[in-house]
Amino acid sequence: MNKYTLSSQFYIVLTNGECSQSHLPDRVCYHDGTISFCNLSPIEVQIVYLLDKHQQMDVHIEIDKNTEVNIIESRILAKDSKLTRNLVIKEDAIVHLFGENDSSDGEILEDIHLFENATCQYGYAELSDGDFNGIYHYYLDGEGAQAKVRMAILSKEKEDKHYEVLIQHNKPHTYGQMDNYGVVKDEGKLVIDGIGTITKGQSGSASHQNNRIMVFDEKCKASANPFLYIDEYDVKASHAAGVGKIDEEHLYYLQSRGLTKKQAMQLITYGYLQPVIEVIDNDMLKERFEKALSKVGE
Questions:
Q1: Fewer beta carbons below 10 Å: N end or C end of the chain?
Q2: For the chain, how far is it from start to end, CA to CA, in angstroms?
Q3: What's the predicted TM-score (pTM) here?
């Protein structure tokens, strides 16, 4: 527990709601649970969240107008801990986030609000150990706002994991896209709920989602549930969802080439989650995903 690596020049470590370590650039500050970004040029900042057992942390992040930032988030939660985070992205800001979940248990609740012409691309590497509940809600509150969510999830052994991803369009000409990929092994359980909502009057908006899960063993339990709630005519909306078993022929082929069954399963897991990387157009996110997903092959 509480093992992390600081990989960026600028960083802040929040332990049970208190700042325990930081090195932040000019015009980025932390005060009383709020991290504010007002930087004039693009920067990269790492945020580490550490929670001990039965602890709760509330964090607010505010991205100012016309700000561009790459944020790397490391989440390390102990049993029965809870992280609640509110992110506000103001007009014309561009934000790329990568969140790696190294928790042993816990729950994360996120609300992300995007205003006029704000752009957010968020990549989640959900490879944690233990049971987990993640609720990630995006609200497109300004015209022209765009949110793209990419998620790679691994549930193994007897882990019970549930993720709810919502993208809600509250203004016209907004765009939302989610691509959620999961792998379930052993006696793991995984539920992915993808929710796209376009409220009345938000013409010209687009909501798309793709939720796919692959299961390895008979005792696995998996469910990929797409929901579209559309209350406007002049919009584009689509969803795809599927749960399928591992291809036994692929497994047999890899074993015939000298790999053990475990090695073959690890390679297939990596390959199945890799499409999450392919739809990303930000170098930082691609690099972080590659590094995180390489762990499933160890």
A1: C
A2: 20
A3: 0.94
